Amino acid sequence: MPWILLVCAGLLEIGWAYSMKRSQGFTLLGPSLITIAAMVASFMLLSLAMRTLPLGTVYTIWTGIGANGAFLVGITVLGEPLTPARLLGAGFILAGVVIMKLSSTA
Question: Are 78 and 21 in contact (CB under 8 A)?
Answer without folding.
Answer: yes
